[in-house]
Design a protein that fits this description.
Number of strands: 0
Number of helices: 9
Largest sheet: none
Helix content: 55-70%
Shape: globular
Structural class: mainly alpha
Order of helices and strands: HHHHHHHHH
Distance between the termini: 26 Å
Strand content: under 5%
Length: 196
């Protein structure tokens, strides 16, 4: 996002603010959806994030990176909503992820059985991520979905950088452990969990 657009939005330029919304909305919705595991909640959270951003934008002084500052607002909104509504939802994991789940790469030479196994494996991984404690799920989302650095995540979550690393390591350990029974149950392509 160009800095001049952020500066214009800070001074009340509605066109600049609309540009920020267009730029960040898909990513914010994605983060909200992954944290909250509910499409409607994620839509509501995304709207709330941009309302809060509009109210807070004039106070942004550039002391932190805009992305980190903004994602802190988004993460706090999502975590607040999560805490207010811990009850389990009736939606299936497939329904929750069908709009935003990354697609397995395909080529004309791919074996249909292999494509099916990749999709099954991805679906299983997404279900396990959705079942992680929210603090682990959040750091994984910010790191591997949004591509943020440990320092940026630390700023957003307001925790030490070392804690970010620890939580990511523990989250991956939990996922690896839980993937083993699934792997034994017939999924031959265990999804990669990138190691930092």
């Amino acid at each position: 996002m160009p800095q001049d657009i952020i500066e214009k939005a800070r001074t009340g330029d509605t066109g600049a603010f609309e540009a920020i919304v267009r730029w960040y909305q898909p990513g914010i919705f994605n983060v909200a959806f992954r944290i909250l595991n509910d499409r409607e909640e994620a839509r509501d959270a995304t709207q709330e994030v941009f309302i809060k951003l509009y109210s807070a934008l004039a106070s942004f002084r550039g002391e932190a990176k805009f992305t980190s500052w903004f994602y802190r607002i988004a993460t706090n909104v999502c975590l607040d909503r999560y805490r207010r509504n811990k009850k389990s939802r009736a939606h299936t994991i497939q329904d929750r992820y069908e709009d935003i789940a990354p697609r397995a790469p395909t080529t004309a030479r791919d074996d249909p059985a292999e494509i099916y196994q990749q999709k099954e494996s991805l679906s299983a991984l997404q279900e396990l991520i959705a079942g992680l404690p929210v603090k682990y799920r959040t750091v994984l989302i910010l790191r591997h979905l949004e591509g943020l650095s440990y320092q940026e995540i630390a700023d957003i979550m307001e925790i030490p950088v070392q804690t970010v690393g620890t939580q990511i390591h523990r989250a991956k350990a939990v996922l690896q452990k839980k993937m083993k029974p699934i792997h034994k149950g017939g999924i031959s392509h265990e999804p990669d969990l990138p190691m930092d």
